[in-house]
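Hey all, sorry for the wall of text incoming. These are the two entities for the joint prediction.
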Amino acid sequence: MKHNDAPAALRRGTLAMRPARSRAGQRLGADMRRDWDLYLLLVPGILFLLVFKYAPMYGISIAFKDFNIFEGYAGSPWVGGKHFANLFQSPDFARVFCNTVIISVLKIAILFPLPILVALLLNELRHMLFKRTVQTVIYVPHFLSWVIVGGLFIDLLSTNGGLFNKALGLLGIEPIAFFLDSSVFRGVLIASAGWKETGWSTIVYLAAFATIDPGLYEASKIDGASRLRQLWHITLPGIAPIILLMFILRLGNILEAGTEQILVMYNPTVYNVSDVIGSYVYRMGLGNQDYSFTTAVGVFESLISLTLVIGGNALSRKYLQRGIW
Amino acid sequence: MSIRTSLSERLFNGCNIAFFIFFGLVTLLPFVNLTAKSLSSEAAVVSGSVNLWPVGFQLGTYQYVLEDAMFLTSLGNSVLLAVVGTALGLFVTTITAYPLSRLRLRGRKWLLLMFVFTMLFSGGLIPMYLLMQALGLVNTMPALFLPAAINVFNLLIIKNYFEALPDSLEESAKIDGASNVRTLFRIMLPLSLPVMATIALFFAVYFWNDYFTAMIYITNQDLKPLQLFLKELLVSSSSEFLKDNVDAALNTTPQSIQAASILLATLPILLVYPFLQKYFVKGVLVGSVKG
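and here's what came out:
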């Protein structure tokens, strides 16, 4: 279809432009003849992309309307920024926003450095069979669903014969109702997320170690560098770009505090510390059918994430001369 | 000097090994505990006397779960979902990744940007729900696998893998007169088994584990996948326990049966995982280092 443009371009072209245009046109024509089947392969993927990723973005318009399911997208009246104004005044939203940020920041502060540390230690294991066995074991929890992990932790932390409370008992500590106590419930969320993902998250850093030039270690050994110095001066700088990349990506998810996890693990007693944007949108949007307001909440979340990733990338390019694109 | 170094190194190695033994135990003990509970009598479980070894050994819980029609229906749904979803996801993602891995493709950059943008920004839960409703997909199986058929993260891993294959492969196929499609399926794919196995595992695990999508779109009992069935089982009884409503809790599913259900739902993953592990380590390595 497109290679018919070549003669048209030729006809339209000015005298000076003609040779260049016709060459470009011929190249395009040749490309299409040679690669038409490559473009054909792209069709299903692009259809999926448009229908399931971009069409919902059109649905964002209902954040600016009083959406009514009977009137549909077109019939519902525009209300401008009303829902966004409500959002900033809503005490509910303030609460879930705070919870989201607190849980996310705690997760980043504690769980982001942990896999780096574990990967560094794994890298120091000299016994290969032991290392492989450890890796096999610590990757497993990543492959379990939040339903299963939630079930395991409810069981483990129960006050009625839960293994963890029994261990606390041996230390002379009274059983703690972890799932009912607002002061410790966020700790449960962070610990269970750490249990599930720390092992798996090391894989990226282990891959990064493999890209470091072994010659650097040889040379430093000759210079008498200890393992600690090698770690500090070779290994860490070697994986710094990957750490940065992972951090920027993690930053983009700051308003996704772990909805799937929380929906399994929370209960009304601890809503005050664990109800986050995702769980709130789920309950209010689908449960109460408050479509327009919760869409506004979702848009707000998406926009913040987008800003953080783009901003984080720009800052890292400016100050560290490295970015993710 | 050298003795001191080796002494401190040995001390470090010892501590390091001890740390990983501890890490491994922390990972495994919950499973051991749960297995013990599933094999113990309900009385022993409720009295809290089961630790790492069954008390009052029985296998009735497993028999009960495997005879439960709801469990079996949801298990069947999950198997179907994992098979169909993985096949479709792997196919669509691969045929999209291949053209995007050819540097000469016109508009490649723009297309990639369109895909990557959806990782950073989305319409959100409610517009997605309304779309699925408009498409008539609510309360159907395709609602669970169609939206997930293209996963941009997986797409990038496969694309990077294809890019890393030597150009000479494609050139020699061209000289032999092979079309692009033929080159992909006859030459590139057989060389991409590690990454294909990895992505297949990722898709299968996603479809097997996802309860959230089903919770949104599926209300029909006969269509619920295993994880949603389990979630309703666990959350309903644990919330009764949490409210100290022991009577109600005792009338819900016994803990030993919950434990058996959880283990049976985990088993397929634990069985497949060791065989695919060698592939995914390799496959992920290539994808993540380049990406």
